[in-house]
Amino acid sequence: MPLYRDEAVVLRTAKLGEADRIITMLTRSNGKIRAVAKGARKVKSRFGARLEPFMRVDVLVAVGRSLDVVSQAESVAAYAAPIAADYDAYVAANVIVETIDRLVPTEHERVPAQYRLLIGALNALAKHAHAPQTIGDSYVMRALALAGWSPRLVSCVVCGEPVGTPAWMSVASGGVMCERDHTPDAYRVEPTVLRQFTALVRGDWSVLDGPTDGALLPATRRLVEEWSEYYMERPIRSLRLLD
């Protein structure tokens, strides 16, 4: 069988038969793939814990008829252990992998920018670089932006003029609106909420790590949930666990 080598992050696993697992991974060069790891559930599996969720691995994969087969797996970065040791980090990591799993529905579609964002977020969680909840929320918004669903946060989506205070938000229309032209579905958003939301989209940690020590206002978190649910067409289940 033809072989290919790639770097990957394990998103999820599923049991197959008595001893095997199906491993869903996002790879650097081949997009999302699903591959069988034969014998992965055995106590003395040659893969050890290298094919568990959140692990970053170098894999050698054999092309199969319906599913590819993992031939080798070597650890590149063991994010799983430090993430699993902290509940908030573990929940945030689940938000992250659930988000990318949904955003990349097609297998073998290259998404290098999404891959870089994914390993950056997991690395930040493993190193406890910022508040886990905020890392998860920022990842969701930045991943959606890469997928083409970035909110318009400076100028009104109706008239195009810069938005001052008060600002109004319409998720369905794609961003902020001014006082004069806001639509009936829009709601008023406080300046601090808009500032935090903008920082999440931009990954601006100088704002997010500011006076609140990485804690987001409840209204900011609700806006992240609303935005992601609208554009992904269903809620991110793990996101609710961060509340």
UniProtKB/TrEMBL annotation:
Its Gene Ontology cellular component terms are: bacterial nucleoid
Keywords tagged on the record? DNA damage, DNA recombination, DNA repair
Q: Which domain of life is it from?
A: Bacteria
The segment(s) forming the DNA replication/recombination mediator RecO N-terminal domain are 1-79
Gene3D superfamilies documented for this protein: Nucleic acid-binding proteins (2.40.50.140), Recombination protein O, C-terminal domain (1.20.1440.120)
Q: Tell me any Pfam family this protein matches.
A: RecO_C
Q: Does the keyword DNA damage apply?
A: yes
Kindly indicate whether the keyword Ribosomal protein belongs to this entry.
no
Alphabetical GO biological process terms: DNA recombination; double-strand break repair
Question: SUPFAM superfamilies this protein is in?
Answer: ArfGap/RecO-like zinc finger (SSF57863), Nucleic acid-binding proteins (SSF50249)
Q: Which PANTHER family match?
A: DNA REPAIR PROTEIN RECO
Q: Which family does it belong to?
A: Belongs to the RecO family.
HAMAP family linked: RecO (MF_00201)
Function noted in UniProt: Involved in DNA repair and RecF pathway recombination.
NCBIfam families, alphabetized: reco
Recorded protein name is DNA repair protein RecO
Specify the species: Bifidobacterium biavatii DSM 23969
